[in-house]
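Researcher: Going back to the complex we discussed earlier. I've cleaned up the inputs and rechecked each line, so this should be the final set. Can you rerun the prediction on the complete assembly and write out the structure?
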Amino acid sequence: MSAEVTTRRESAVERGATALDNLGYRLQRLPLHLVIIIICAIWIVPTVGMVINSFRGLQDMSQSGWWTTLFPPHGFTLESYRQVLAIEGVAPSILYSVLITIPATVIQLTIATMGAYAFAWMRFPGRNLFFIVIVGLMVVPIQMTLIPVLQIFKFLHINGTIMAVWLAHSGYGLPFEVFLLRNYLGGLPREIFESAEVDGAGHSTRFLRIAVPMTIPAIASLTIFVFLGIWNDLLVALTFLGVSAYRPFTVVITGLVTSFGGGWQFLTAAAVLQMALPLAVFIFLQRYFVRGITSGSVKG
Amino acid sequence: MDQIITAVVAVVGVPLVLLGYIIGGEKVMERLPDRLQGWARPYFWALPAVGFATIFMVYPMVRTVIISFRNNDDTEWIGLANYKYFFTFPDTLTALRNSVAWLVFYTFFAVFLGLIIAILVDRVRYESLAKIAIFLPVPISAVAASIIWKFMFDYQPPGTTQTGTLNAVLATFGRDPVAWLITGPFVNNAALIFVGIWTAVGFCMVIISASLKAISSEVLEAARIDGATELQIVRLVVTPLLWPTITVVGTTMLINALKTFDIVYVMTNGAYDTDVIATRMFSQLQSSHFGRAAAVGVVLFIAIVPLLIVNIRRFQQQEEQR
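Model: Rerun complete. Updated structure for the full complex:
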């Protein structure tokens, strides 16, 4: 890290570094820089290439690689975007994605926060057992639940509706969220809750006035994480809305990819539209985003 | 339009309903005798979350196990027939083999590259910039990533202009193009696993990097003074100190590998021998072979059980330290 670099520099200065020493040090580090830059290039080029391609004409895309556009004549156009949005069902599916994602996120996080409070600040028989089950449920593959949940939805006559997907996502997301929020809530100082209790505040006041406001940072990170998870989800939507009129964006794109044998190039535009939101969130809310993603697996 | 109204109602309504549940429930409970109150209150608070988890996870898991021993119409017990099918049908065996390949190679390379990159970028001043580059694929959905990589893997017959990035690179070195997603079983599965690795390395790197920062610089300085080379420091000092984190990241990756679905489904839909357990399960589900699909789900779950136990153990250890 930079601290280490400075210590090294300082020791070099102590030895009475000359410009030559400095040059030697830089040369020695050249392979390091090269390796990092090559790896970074491998990781960025595919995405950049596709984004560039999405702004090219369909003819160009099928006749030459995206890199040819880097040199004039560029020939940038919005043809792909126009074509993909003109396909029946594509534009509404973006709306359905929003209509699935926002309520599903709100529903599960409100329920999870309340449950997490009970696990963090109430004592009751079976608490540990329940919680261990929740820790276990975090890794259960949802494939293990799809068929019976489908049957439940059919029984309730809500199969193929957006509401069904809210419920399914909420059920699948809850274990992780309860786990995370319970750890966060449990880490809040005990004295605050105790003095509130002494002042006569009931659990509803302690929850709404103390626990929830103090948990906002954790809830914020989790919201971003959960929101994008549902926005990017394919399996749940495919299972419960695969043939419904309310198919979200990911399912519609996937359908287009698999149904066009060749000539699928204009789908670059669809992919760019689909990933625009996650990338914007990542770039502008980087800190929350990374915290949301890491908090689950490091210490907890 | 109706859908929009329903969504708005849900976004506003669900928190309000829960608020009502909390306040109303507490009002009722305050009237109860003290002992009953103390007993009932925690269950009242935990009920919505536990109820949801029970309806959508615990009950379905039990049902899936039952369905896996029944015929497709759920009218008759058929013993282990669905499992027998799973372990003898050639297509499922291919899926099983591929899942093992995912398990080994995806996990190993995602964690290994994550570790190496975390250590390397730790030594340069543009660390945060490099990390953003590596992390970029993480927020991208598997659907978009699949389209991105379809362009990388694009194949045109030899002699024509290659529009796929990888084959264009091969062409500049005078090599014949490779039909990455069709040439099986080695090349196409390796290609799909690589896409998986590409999306996962950023995640591993960020977590490993966080605990790398926690290693005190004094430890490293001491090793340097003792004359250890940089490679020795990484191998003998840094890696052992990072080991707990590496195992955490490793288990997460193993679970991801077993659950792999999106990338395979979008890129090849299991064609040319690229099926994995999860895509296999889904195709059985779509052809209404519920018994067989359930059996595949159970197999997937059994494969995850050891990791589940590891997770619970780790949780219990953390609890003791609290």
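Model: Worth noting: The two ends of chain A are 26 Å apart (CA to CA).
Researcher: Good, that matches what I expected from the previous run.
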